[in-house]
Amino acid sequence: MASVKAGVAKRPAPSGSPGHPAKARIAKTGASPGLAKAPISKAPSQAARAASPPAAGEGAQTGRSETWRAFAESDPLYALVGEVSTHKVMDGNGKLDEGLLMKYLDMAIIQKAVKKPKDWVEFWAAMDIPVTNQVEVLEPILRFALEHEPESLGKIAAELLIGHRVKSKSLQEAIQGACKEEGTDKGFLRETFFLIFPKGPQSEWGWSRVGWSWQEWWKLVDGCYSGLDSARAFDELCWLLDKIEAEGGKPLVEQAQVWNETRLKKVKTLLCKFGGVENEKDLSACLDAALN
User: Is position 192 within any domain?
Assistant: First the structure.
């Protein structure tokens, strides 16, 4: 106990305080000398807790881990987000743990822990993926979803973009990688592009964001469809244009604030390229949307 007293005696007295610091504290509290040692007696238990290693794999977030584990049955999404944020799929050096990612995707898609497309914004955020590594993680997610739940992928991709979780360039590169084989897109692109179409007078359903314009939208559409086989790209783009026109309530050529002559020309040129059509006028026989 002498070492404890020596430690207390070495503490400097507060400025302007007379006498020994230990005596000054006792005098203020009115406690006996024996009780003055009580705060010091806590130090061994705190040190013991700090020295106790966490459970295997828990790291520095043991407290949080205990929280999400308790909700594994009652709130699977909360539990999944907690686990994903605790055990990262990518380390600080940018190395992806593909096995761990597949485990999380099985929980999210096969076991239905992530039920709504908007929940993917939270799920992605929990992974904390650097911008420079987005494609490396997004591409296998697209592949897995295309294989197991393609009917929801269009909305999921749109939500990740609208929720500012992935960059449009990252999405394009991931799509090009995941859908490079014929027919592998399974129609999800047209739904994604429809949902993120720039909001306007005839597109009240669309996406409004500073910097998001028809030019940016078309750049993404062109880049993604150009990665598909030509026949598939032609059919998908025709469907997309027909859907936009139908929802807009008037022919595209009459939606002047969005579909001006320059933009319609770009669309027709790309359609001719995909469809092997030499005369733009022949496009009217292939789609319902009015481009002329």
Answer: yes
DSSP assigned state of 5: H
What is d(CA 287, CA 283) in angstroms, rounded to the nearest whole number? 7
Q: Output the pTM of the full model.
A: 0.74
| Residue 216 belongs to domain spanning | 187-292
Reading the block at residue 160, the tokens are 């990740």
N- to C-terminal Cα separation, the chain: 95
At residue 282, the pLDDT reads 85
Instruction: Using alpha carbons only, give the angle 85, 89, 93 rounded to the nearest 5 degrees.
Output: 110
Q: Is residue 222 in a domain?
A: yes
Interatomic CA distance for residues 172 and 137, integer angstroms:
13
Cα–Cα distance list, 94 to 70, 130, 137 (Å): 30, 8, 10
**DSSP characters over 152-174:** HHHHHHHHHHHTTSS-HHHHHHH
